[in-house]
Automatic annotation (TrEMBL), chain A:
Domain of life assignment: Bacteria
Protein's name in the database: ABC transporter permease
Naturally occurring in which organism (per UniProt): Aequorivita vitellina
Chain segments annotated as transmembrane: 20-36, 42-67, 88-112, 124-147, 159-181, 201-221, 233-255
This protein's UniProt keywords: Membrane, Transmembrane, Transmembrane helix
Phylogenetic placement of the source organism: Bacteria, Pseudomonadati, Bacteroidota, Flavobacteriia, Flavobacteriales
TrEMBL record, chain C:
Domain ABC transporter: 2-227
Protein name: ABC transporter ATP-binding protein
GO molecular function: ATP binding; ATP hydrolysis activity
Lineage, broadest ranks: Bacteria, Pseudomonadati, Bacteroidota, Flavobacteriia, Flavobacteriales
Pfam families noted in UniProt: ABC_tran
Gene3D superfamilies, A to Z: P-loop containing nucleotide triphosphate hydrolases
Keywords assigned: ATP-binding, Nucleotide-binding, Transport
Amino acid sequence: MLKILKYSFYDLMRSRWSYVYFLFYLLLGVVLLFLNNDLSKAVITLMNVIIILVPLIGTIFGVMYYYNSREFTELLLAQPVKRSSIFLGQYFGVATSLALSLVIGLGMPFVFYGIFNSNAIWDFSLLLITGAFLTFIFTALAFVIALSNENKIKGFGYAILLWLFMAVIYDGLFLMSLLYFEDYPLDKFSLVATMLNPVDLSRVLILLKLDISALLGYTGAVFQQFFGTNFGLILSFVMLVFWVVIPTFFIWRIAKRKDF
Amino acid sequence: MKNKFYILFLLIGFLSVTNLWSKTITVCATCPVKSINEAILQAEEGDTVLVKKGIYKEANIKIEKGITLIGENMPTIDGEEKGEIITIGADNVTLDGFKIINVGLSYTTDYASVRVVNSSGFTIQNLELEKLFFGIYLQKASNGKVLNNKVRGEAVTEFNSGNAVHLWYCKNVEVRGNDVQNVRDGIYLEFSDNITIKDNLSKNNVRYGLHFMFSNNNFVINNIFETNGAGIALMFSKFMDVENNIIQKNWGTAAYGLLLKEVNDAHIKNNLFFENTVGITVEGSNRLEYANNDFTSNGYAIKVKGACYENRVIDNNFLYNSFDISYNGRINDNKFNNNYWSNYTGYDLDKNGIGDVAYRPVKLFSYIVNRTPETIILMRSLFIDIIDFSEKVSPVFTPDDLMDENPRMKQINHDRN
Amino acid sequence: MIEIKDLHKKFGKNEVLKGIDLSIKEGGIFSILGPNGSGKTTLIKAILGMVLPDSGEIFINEKSLKNNFKYREKIDYLPQIANFPGNLKVNELIDMIKDLRASEATKDEELIELFKLQPFLNKRLVNLSGGTKQKVNLVLTFMFDSPLIILDEPTSGLDPISHLRLKNLIFAEKEKGKTILVTSHILSFVEEIADEIVFLLEGKIYFKGSIPELKSKTEQPDFEHAIASILSASYA
């Protein structure tokens, strides 16, 4: 698997898209920091970008990469290599290169700005870690979608739909159910609902840093434990890991049973 | 410093007391006078009792004449939990430089380390109070000073702890330079007027850093209130000045930096509110002026709970708060002007430093969170941003006239010492 | 060499292989023929393990293919459409396949020489023409020395000289006693090289044997007509 990963990664690291992605983040970081000159504000804007854009790019890139490398995949399939290694290798190759573009692209301007001498370093590192997680999660989901759909157009459609659902629609439904059932104790429900959507999960993880003062204003005991202690942070990270592992498991399973 | 006061008081004694030649009585383990109580018994109006370093196991020390009680090198008075330790019942008493420990705990009587009853002209300074119930309890006292005392309680709950500096029916008292930690309320005022509270540090207290009830015309200046149950609670009071304070890190479900309940005609100026769950909670308070404050990284900068009229919020910085203003209901009679809002996204085409579009500090989401608190978990979600935006364009739930017509483009640099 | 027993495969409702029994002996060139949709590619892919059969089993050298990927070390496969990761260079691709197979005894340099690929070695694959890509594809296939070679439409996109070289290459491999499976639409090419053909029709083996046998069975003078007569008979 590592060999496949290596070659996919090489391939992507030379592709135009990696550069576009990288430059986009570089530019974003520079604009946010040097035009605005306000680190705290930059971190907040960055959070919106990471939570919305990273999943979108991960999804589209994952689907695109899969469909574009179909023939090559078939060549690999005829080689004495395990099937799961091929797909997992490709997946990790794509996800790693995307995550690196993100981390380096955003990291560089912040390092030059002097993030290491700033209190925002933790918020910022958390942002990058979450961004990397989201890349891995959504690329994996994209691979699952692409593996299950021979039809390219359908695959793209489902991928965009998935993103739209996770980024916007889910929260809409979430909010409506909270308002509809407002007479019941809802803190457990809302935590579970958060855990079930990686976008929400990452958002809450960042909120734990950015908006902890507001979050602690809520009275429920479950929220208190979640937000007030390290429990929330640890649980969120564990869930993010699950969100990477489970789709990856599906890649493995679908790849094993699929005909090419 | 100690000597200065000493001389000053000698002078006061010299001028006001009939006995022109006041004497000094020294107390120590090897001296002829071995206990403080005995020395006080011997002393006359205007005398000085000088207590040398050592541990004095005495309680119920009653000072009924205008004397100066001074500790040399911080002698300790150990009350052995027998009740109140020092009670001052005469005018012109000075108490200076003692460590006072082990006040008795009772649920029927509020025992204090030092109590001043019906007196004026007192000075209580340089004390260190530990193992206390109430610290310095001023009861119907006036024209006195409480200076540079250090209070360290061990309070865990509100119910079995007392306040560090407690004023009840007092007038013209200066509370300055005290460091009060881990008690119920750091400084407590009830029915007390013309009190100046300055340069104090009030930290880690279970309930409030500073608590006012029915007290008017007071000054709260240059204090630091940090990680208390809540920073300052002002209730049922008027004509206050709260200036140049730092109020920070008051976190929790009912925590806020400053509570204003039924407070009228107060000035809240030049304060820093940093990382509080709520910067200011206001309820039923009118004609207040909030100017030149910094609200930084609070959950809510200002939470208006209702019945607040003719308040003015001017020239403040609102920086990175989760919510700038939260409002109950749709009626607004308060004025917001010339503030800097870090959440402002407008533009300034005429380059006059003032944004060309008004800023609406109340978000629909804060309204939703007020109604269903669990929704807080959706903060900063794209969906919430979308509905906030639509509410901004055409307000339905939030007061449509609540806006800052002249939002600043740049943060204001407030001078703060 | 290859034993296929009662192989069935459906794609959705479409039954592509309807019970194939086939045994291919070691040595010689076998051509799998059949109209579009007859199941040629599916059969080859089943042998390569890319398509998993619904029922039936395949043995290569008496070993079942189930849960086995190592056997592919013994197979050189030329896929029909060759599309490689565009950002790799030709020599990197060759190194990569070598790396993946971890097998020795390669003849890559010889083959590069044969197809005159030296000028392209440092170019990215995305910049190559279809024919050049096919040559790279051929190099990748023939550079190993495996006993079984499977070629899916090997002639597509080749110029006449390369075509000739390919033919020679196939004969040379046959001389070494290898088994070679070929599918092709170019009947003249098949006729020239194939020792035995397998004709698939609607998911079943319609005919297996040598070209002369086919001619005599269909009573046609030449190969093309023989094939045509099978097709017209089946569609009549």
